[in-house]
Design a protein that fits this description.
3-stranded antiparallel beta sheet, Ribosomal Protein L22, Chain A, 7 helices, alpha+beta
């Protein structure tokens, strides 16, 4: 029986700071729980820090989902819905989930309804200025009205809301950045997509983060932490008994 339960109106968020590359925790990551495709993709990273972050993120995904499903982390199998959302294969009533990682921060969302999460490091001003022309017209107007020092942070918050929503839909960026309004002020009557709740999340001084859940009501949000030491081979026999991280 699953030891963690997520109700229809719940949104469970899990965060992780990956271990430093040269740390004992990084060397002890239980990478044997990952499948061949995950290990192959990790090996494709050029920078060691990116490789460790990918390994830690995907190991955390497995160890977080294990107590929701009652299936050991190494036995979980992943696929894609026709719409593009990732799914668990062979697990009756499996929860929905979404994973994102960027520059030292990992975010995972678990829910009963379609969910998307995104985390991004706040970009330089030049990047925000370059990319904003691809956004929804009302979003472009909102950003244009901001003073220059606030643009990069506001752009990052908007971008994570948009990516979280598109992940929830399952389309990703293939849908196009201008198709949906995910801004803050609703200029000229612009409204966020109906049937979805999109939330700004705390990302710390260097990151922006957001979650999107397909619901008409305000979800109950619970945030937990996954620690690097929860991802080592020594925790293999215990993580399904107590869950991962601290409540």
């Amino acid at each position: 029986m699953p030891l963690l339960r997520v109700a229809d109106d719940d949104l469970h968020l899990w965060t992780l700071r990956p271990p430093p590359v040269d740390s004992a925790a990084a060397r002890a990551l239980a990478t044997g729980e990952l499948d061949r495709a995950e290990r192959h993709r990790a090996d494709a990273y050029v920078r060691p820090g990116d490789r460790v972050q990918y390994l830690a993120a995907h190991l955390a995904l497995r160890r977080v989902l294990a107590p929701y499903t009652g299936v050991p982390a190494r036995r979980l199998r992943f696929g894609r819905e026709a719409a593009g959302r990732p799914v668990l294969l062979g697990v009756p009533r499996a929860p929905s989930f979404s994973l994102s990682h960027s520059h030292g921060l990992v975010l995972l969302g678990v829910a009963r309804r379609p969910v998307g999460v995104d985390v991004q490091r706040v970009p330089p001003y030049a990047t925000a200025e370059l990319c904003r022309g691809a956004l929804h017209p009302a979003e472009q107007e909102e950003l244009a009205a901001l003073p220059e020092p606030r643009l990069a942070e506001a752009f990052a918050r908007l971008w994570t809301r948009k990516e979280a929503y598109l992940k929830g839909l399952g389309t990703g960026l293939a849908r196009g950045l201008s198709a949906d309004y995910l801004g803050e002020s609703g200029r000229d009557g612009a409204r966020r997509p109906a049937g979805w709740v999109v939330l700004d999340l705390a990302g710390g001084p260097d990151h922006a983060a957001a979650a999107a859940l397909r619901t008409d009501s305000t979800p109950r949000v619970t945030t937990r932490e996954v620690r690097p030491e929860d991802l080592t081979s020594t925790t293999h026999d215990t993580h399904t008994e107590r869950g991962v991280g601290s409540a």
